[in-house]
Design a protein that fits this description.
The complex is a heterodimer of chains A (359) and B (356). With 359 residues, chain A is an alpha/beta fold. Helix content of chain A is 40%, strand content 16%. Chain B is built from 13 helices and 2 strands, in the order βαααααααααααααβ. Chain B has a two-stranded antiparallel sheet. Classes of the chains: A alpha/beta (359), B mainly alpha (356). Chain A: Keywords: Lipoprotein, Signal.
Amino acid sequence: MKLKNVAACALVALCAAAPAAQAQVKLDGKPKIAFLFLGTATDGGWSQSQNAARLALAKAYGQKIPYVDNVPEQTAKVEQEIDLFLNHGANIIIAGSYGYSDAFAAEAKAHPNDVFVNMAGISSTPNLESFYGKTFEGWYLAGMAAGYATKSKSLGMIEGFPIPDVLWDVNAFALGAQAANPGTVVHVAFVNSWSDPVKEAQISAAMIQQGADVIATDMDSPAALVVAEKAGKYSVGYQVDMAKSAPNGILTSVEFHWEKRLIPMVAEIEKGSWKSGGTPLYGIKEGVVDDATFQHIPADDIAKILAVRQEMIDGKFSPWTGPIADQSGKVQEPAGQTISEDDLWNMNYLVANVKGSMK
Amino acid sequence: MGKLIVSPRLAAPPRLAAFTMLGGLGAGMLISAIFLLTQGLGLSDLASQFLGYTFTDPAGLDQTLTRAIPLTLVGLSVAVCLRVKFWNIGVEGQLWAGALAATTVPLYHIGPEPVHLWIMALAAMLGGGAWCGVCALARLKLRANEVVTTLLMNYVAYMLAQQLLYGAWRNPEDSFPVSRAFSPDETLALLGFGHVHAGIFFALAAALFCWWLCSLSRVGYMARAVAANPLAARAVGVPAAAVVLLMATLGGALSGLAGFTIVCGEEHKLTQFIGNDYIFPSIVIAYLARTSPLGVVVAAVAVAALYTAGDSLKAFYQLPGATVLTIQAILLLCVCCGEFLLRYRMDWVKTVKVRA
């Protein structure tokens, strides 16, 4: 009986302690934000989309937001830059790189009263949130557009690293193309870098030579699109609206609008009501991901794409509803079922109509 | 009328040596300050960034000291080689070779687990030493200029590292081009002051050892003879070739050890860019220290402080990262100019017209 009491007491204590551990982070004073960028702030892609968020935050909060760019995915360098900002009074550190995950986790543990945000990261603590976009929603719609546009039924897509949140981009693109134009295949190539414009252009040219008539890039630069434009082929951009790089052939760009989540997040932090959401995904509904205006395809097709977009917003449609088979023909998701977000983070295969290897 | 006569000094008085060094540094700092002021920095910004943050702020000091660990080792590497007039322009390659050698230990489970860290340090020294020793051999046997060979070996090591990171050593979990993380036993412990890790003891011990070697040991004495006049040294029975080989290999081992402190103390795995941007500072440090091993420690801390200040210039004043490199170059040039005044004396001689 006594033992039971002790256990009960311990349980109560635990329950009381648990919310305390999960409690909101209380900032010392007003929010002071600082940014780290992987590339240059004007790289035409990834870092530029985050710089746009920085400028939007600066406007919304009327403060100058300092940043450093070209921070390599090297733990010591990332930690040094974070420390620098914290020591100069910053209390919210925002960055966006998968390769910063370890450094952000270490810094978040060392500075529990500051808030850390690492977009596209995979680590989280009570004061570190690594949110990302449901890029697959944008890519599915872009895949539909490519499916409607293609004549050769052969698409090319250039990718960075074969990690889950990149694999879901190519898979969604392929599924969208398949839905719009059955029998369409997507040729994929991995560059093993986030930005390597020379290689991206070479791969783009090679894919066009092999018959691809839509080139989609999942990289930080528009290099592949420039090649497609010159060859008179269609293209799909990423991260920012890349229409300027390929005005005559671009179908759309899968865009990030990080500020759509960051501005409300900072407001919550200021109020003291913010809690780390772990590694949440925000999509077209929240506005974090969206496609740029569709063009160069018939209006009927655009209407069909926008109808699917609306179903995504209403929660009536997911690209991940089965049947989904991988390259080997193995069923990864049976008909009628939908892959959960947790399982998406473990995606390690390419779907059946993708040609190319993850190696 | 008159003219300027420049003549070499037979012996430089020590007081002048100190004076030209300080004068060179002072002039360099003045020019750097003017350069920064033209870039839109205020005087108070300069003082707060360079003196305030880098030395008095604990976090700034933490960054400076952490950075100084590999900088000390690569500085020693160049300094030791210069003791035998061997120009080591290859510290990055040797650092990579050391880091790669160290990484093989956890990846292939070499030796008993509890002493992995020590085996890694030893492997790193062997790797770096071999990388530089080969260049010394090439100079001794093939008369290949070491400035060229050590420089080119940088690229060989870098490409080898990338080959491994994109191939056999790629992280199996996410296919990222980094090695898998080392276990806690295979990393250098933090000392409770920010990011400063136990590698600082390796750096200080290396500096003390080099000081002993260069100043007190017989090898150091022979090295001085070889540096002054290799032919004469050989004539009196100094094994000149062996001394050059030994000092160059030791120099390489020191850079290799720098690679070890980075992968084990900072990254806790092998990552893609660890060896970048060490060549120029290593030469600046060795030169500022006039190849004195203990002086290297001071110069390395100073250069590390420059980087710390440069980071905040980049972050808060949007100055490009190359600013720090520019300042290092200004300092180096000024100290070199001071060196000129130390080696040569300049006399203004009045010409007297003799009437016939």
